[in-house]
Amino acid sequence: MLLSLMIFIPLLGMIAVLLLPRESEELIKRVTLLFTLIPLALAVALFISYDRSTAGTQYVVNVPWIQAFNIQYHIGIDGLSVTLLLLTALLGPICVIASWRNIEKGIKAYMALFLLLETGMLGFFVALDLFLFYVFFELTLLPMYFLIGIWGGPRREYAAIKFFLYTLFGSVLMLVAMIAVYLNSGAPGARTFDIPTLITLASTEGHALNNLNFQIWVFLGFFVGFAVKVPIFPFHTWLPDAHVEAPTAISVILAGILLKMGTYGLVRVNMAMFPQGLDFFCNGMGFWGNSLALLGFINIVYGSFCALAQTDFKKLVAYSSIGHMGFVILGLSARNDSGITGAILQMFNHGVISAMLFLLVGVLYDRAHHREINGFGGLGTKMPVYTGITTLAFMASLGLPGLSGFVGEALSLLGAYDKFKLLTILSTIGIVVGAAYFLWTLQRVFLGTLNPKYEDLPEINGREILTLVPLGILTIVLGVWPNFAIDMFRESVTSLIGVLQVN
Amino acid sequence: MQPLSNIESLLYFSPEILLVIFAAAVVLLDLVVKDGESSAVAHLSLAGCICVFAAVLITHFSFGDEGPISLFLGMVRLDVFSSFFKVLLLLATAATILFSLRSDELDARLKGEYYALLLAITLGMFLMASSTNLLMIFISLETVSLTSYILAGFLTHSPRSSEAAFKYITYGAVASGTMLFGLSLLFGMTGTGDLGQISVRLTELLASGDITPLAVLIAITFILAGVGYKIASVPFHMWSPDVYEGAPIPITAFLSVASKSAGFALFIRFFYAGFGNAELMQAVDWTLMLAIVSALTMTVGNLAALPQQNVKRLLAYSSIAHGGYLLMGGVLLTSEGIGAILFYLVVYLFMNLGAFYVVVLIANEEGTEMIEGYRGLASRAPLVAWAMAIFLFSLTGIPPFAGFFGKWLLFAAVLEQGYYWLALVGLLNSVVSLYYYARIVKAMFLEDAGEETTQVSFSTGTFALLSVFVIPTILIGFLNIFYTFSNISASVIPMQ
Fold first, then answer.
1. CB contact under 8 A, A67 and B416
2. What is the DSSP string of A138-158?
3. What global pTM score does this model have?
4. Is A66's CB within 8 Å of B483's CB?
5. How far apart are alpha carbons B378 and A110 in whole angstroms?
6. Which residue has the higher pLDDT, A433 or B105?
């Protein structure tokens, strides 16, 4: 009940916003903020009351939906979903506050779409029925298309449709795989979309789902769907376009939550449901046995080098996202305790840090109206508070020990070193390059002599600090006390590893 | 139960009889009312639809436990399947009448004939959905074709409309001729016109070796030409873009929905009742042919829709593509597949008619059918723009709209039979289709209207009618009742 309430409160908020008159903009913003704060309160309550000592799903609701196909409205949370749920609920109000002043036209439609997007994201992380999972996954597409397409930058039309087409391409392959799983799950009438049931069936000896060849193909179908979202090379090209054109708050959601939907899907479906398929792609000596780790490595190195080459601040952050998501893939492909724990932690940390980075880029863009890194210089003296927060975010992102980014990446690499020594060693190049581009950016934007054009640049204001402070606190807390988050999903990871060992 | 005699059948034939009465009444009323007051005629036709609707329900529920009834000595059948299509077709007709009332395109002086023809074509489609005899099938098909030729050419002042009618009639004549040839082959082989008998006779003949499977395959191919023409499947689709573009918008909407539905009704009944038994399907392998036709139809439709600038023409090609998706459900004639077709037809009725209604509204306001006319619609008429966006995304098959659930059922039915390549072709086609549907959305939401930013206001009636299409497009997928259609297919199987 609590979960359902949480998912559908933003939807109620959307209806409420739609009913308000278009002119009362302040009221619309306040209502939206209220309807994103309620899920946050609920998420915090869940976070506190979640029973950390068990791996089972909690707060389960399971009612029939489309009986003819045995589709259920089945939701529940485990350690992984509750962590990402908290992240989603936290970024909701932050994005509303970040959109307070810089959305000039159509604030009503913007807020309504944003609330719809939030429902899609929250629902996705709690869905335990494959069909429901898919519906929520796709539900985020439409609002995202409009949010980028209407309120984006100069090339917004191109970016929006590219995002839409790429994601839809991935999700139709996922749909085929999903139907294939359903059809093979039992005799007609006994088929199911229920994720926990499917996980059990897939590890039952002699069941149609427990077949290496079948698992490899459906693994691939789901993988492409999620890989577009993560994004994993070579499906990543939509991401820089979408990020650069999207308004600040939407970039935050895109990097903070939508990318996590891809990796969450990989854990929830690809790993848990198809352990044999996973085994094929990350165990063994041959090319296929290393393929998943290889993709992680490519993401890390390729993303970092691309970021190094950017002169657009936002594009740099976008490419750095690709690099950091590579650590998640690398950690997952290790399939051991520290690898998976690191990957999940990295998901959460990247959500927090990239959200900060995009917010910070937005702050600068709102003042200077451009994002050219080389066009600034010496801002450190002009905007000391802004410089301080940015430095914190940069350090967290490049993996400075003591801040959250380090823990996730270190654990991922630690786990991966067990299985893929060479790839892990090579992946550390990404960290070095990451330090290079962040420090270089820091130097170009904040140090040196002040560009006289920006003599009167105002310092970061209270509203902007309000959006950044909770995220900043999280990076520090998780940096020194990572168990704060790890405790949440430790049992879930242990149980996942148990599933992975069945072959 | 034995087929009823001609006199006994009349009672169960009341919907069709009522249609004839109302068609005649419309013509008579048109003689009395003054020019320019044609809305009375439209309202009478609308009243006719409601009466016929009641009659359909009454006759449907009157056969009770006795099961499907054969009427007129086995010419026509009254079963759940035909009642389903009658309701669907009546909805389409009623919507078309309402569109026509609001459309500025039509010549007010000719509206009497126009509405009478609409009722007549509905009669033909009723028969297409319920005929079980080769002769009746052909007659019903011709009734529909001849009437639609006239309706397509109804804009007498427009050369495009006349061209449409001419093209339609030329293609139509060839297709019906080909089909007639196929029907005569079938009759020659089996000596009967009754679909149920044909199925039995063909199985016997094939088993005894008196005819070869190839002969049956040839007959089927010829007959497919006629059916394929009605549902605009490749390679019999060439007429449809020109006809859809030239015809008045309400008629285009009607043809793309009702004509296609009736075509599918005929297709299902013909192939399911006539060729649906397992032995026959094993002997004559025509499923691959249908699968290829289906794949080609959606691909050609979608690729041709990509560069279109005229929304009506774009929707025409998209409607060809949807014919292809629908055919997927018919490839293997399973009850799941047929249930999926029926589900999709219901969804398609609402989303496609809705999209065409917006085209009517824009054509009235802007005087254009081109995509440019939709520019900045989101700021000028937000509700209409959002409604259109919902229809278009539903046509693409994006959740949570009903189109997604429809496509999902079709793909599941195809995958169930192991046709993975066909499902993949269909799904990739969905991705392609997003591009051209999104072009209209882009024009409405992402582009500015330019200098003219005047608000367009529509009447409450317009919004009410629009919501009749929007609400089902959003809700159908979430309602359990719509997933029971696969049961209907059982009623098509003929009594032995």
1. no
2. HHTHHHHHHHHHHHS-TTHHH
3. 0.91
4. yes
5. 13
6. A433
